[in-house]
Amino acid sequence: MFKFKKLLQTTCLVLVLGSAFLVVYQRHIPSNSEIGTQQLSPRWQDRGTKSKDYDENESNNLVMTMASGPGVGTPAKNYSQGVSASHTGKSSDPGKSVDLKSVFISVKTTSSFHKSRLPVILKTWFQLAKQQTWFFTDADDEHFQKETNNHMINTNCSSSHGRKALCCKMSVEFDVFLESNEKWFCHFDDDNYVNVPRLATLLANYSPQEDWYLGKPSIRAPLVILNREDKNFSKNRQNVTFWFATGGAGFCLSRALALKMKPIAGSGKFISIGERIRLPDDVTMGYIIEHMLGKSLTMVDEFHSHLEPMKFLGQDTFQDQITFSYSQYGKDDWNVVKIDGFAPRIDRTRFLSLHCYLFPYFTFCPR
Fold first, then answer.
1. What is d(CA 296, CA 87) in angstroms, rounded to the nearest whole number?
2. If we measure between CA atoms, which residue out of 244, 252, 167, 157 comes closest to residue 204?
3. According to the UniProt entry, where is the signal peptide (predicted)?
4. CA atoms within 13 A on the CB side of 342
5. Which letter, b or e, does each residue of 218-252 get, where b requires 16 or more Cβ atoms within 10 Å of its Cβ?
6. Are 175 and 267 in contact (CB under 8 A)?
């Protein structure tokens, strides 16, 4: 009897101690749902490339949401840092989308690239923005004039890739936009794939009535050049420092900013500024906006140019990106996104495969 009583007391003591331990454990160890939340930020934080000033603490600003419509599922990120402390952006809300009718999309090309570069654009993303997209070239082309629904403009600029020819085309693009009623001017090159729904989502978060210069630099520090506006620049040797969005990745300007640029860069004046500073079109654009007008570039990391290694863009981030590109370094060396799909001999740029990944309902996509 005594032994049984002793055993019962020991058992009760173990149960009491066990209950106390369980209470302490539950208070200090997170639940499964809390663990899932803590792990979510790092996973989304690692998606896609990071800007040079990316702050690891920005994971608190990452939000995962889904929008209706094909191929539009994006994390929202608040670029509170931007390119520098003064280059402030806004968060991207995938639930919002700007009316494409308010966007003027220009594609810079040249006659020697019409046959090699335009067909894949016309078959893919152009189909999502036919009325908004215009091609700026340097020669008349009856075939592609028809293929683009008469949206090809001969700038009468040189077909060379020199500084003056590039500034000439950009000047025409800018002036044609000013003559339109659109609220946004978005420039791209003929080696870009544009994720149109994602572009619309981006622009919906900014007001065209405010000054916005949206893009991505291709350099890790502001450009420093001699101040050639100074008549005695060769003697004074004063420098000008500014950021510019690389044209090969694409960039967008709000109408409010474009109207401020008009007196100094409109009606062909853009070319003169480019000649004065002796730099190409995208750099001249940054010089006008940042240096002459004192407006800042807002960093958008989802623009991509051929200067970046495309293979490092994860396929699970493709829906988040705004532009893609490609380039050829040798006979068989291509800088392209890594994605399964059409055979390389059919789809060397991988734009067809990319498009079918984002928009599988297109008729030419494999079923």
1. 5
2. 252
3. none
4. 20
5. beeebbeeeebeeeeeeeeeeebebbbbbbbbbbb
6. yes
Closest CA to 58 of 285, 323, 301, 335: 301
Residue 350: CB atoms within 10 A of its CB come to 23
- 303-316 pLDDT, tens per residue? 999 999 999 999 99
Q: Alpha-carbon distance 74 to 200, whole Å?
A: 12
Active-site choice (189, 282, 301, 347): 282
Residue 291 Rama label (left phi>0; alpha psi -120 to 50; beta): alpha
What's the length of the chain?
Answer: 367
**Most confident among 39-43, 92-96, 167-171 (mean pLDDT):** 167-171
The phi, psi pair for 125, rounded to 5°, reads -70, -25
The span from the first CA to the last CA of the chain, in angstroms, equals: 79
Q: Give ∠ CA 42-44-48 in degrees, rounded to 5.
A: 115
DSSP assignments along 49-90, one per residue:
---TT--GGGGGG-EE---SSTT---EE---SS-SSTT----
**Alpha helices, H only, 132-265:** 142-147, 163-179, 196-203, 233-236, 255-265
22 membership: H or E segment, kind and range: helix 2-28
> 137 exposed, middle or buried (CB, 10 Å; 0-12, 13-18, 19+)?
buried
pLDDT tens digit string along 186-222?
999 999 999 999 999 999 999 999 999 999 999 999 9
DSSP string for residues in 196-207: HHHHHHHHTTS-
CB-based contact 155:169 (threshold 8 Å): yes
Whole-prediction pTM value? 0.74
Residue keyed to tokens 């950021």: 243
What is the token pair recorded at 316? 């699970």
In the residue annotation, 282 being an active-site residue is answered as: yes
* Encoded tokens for 361: 């309902």
Strand ranges, E, within the chain: 63-64, 75-76, 103-108, 133-137, 152-154, 184-189, 193-194, 213-215, 223-226, 239-242, 251-254, 297-299, 323-324, 327-328, 334-335
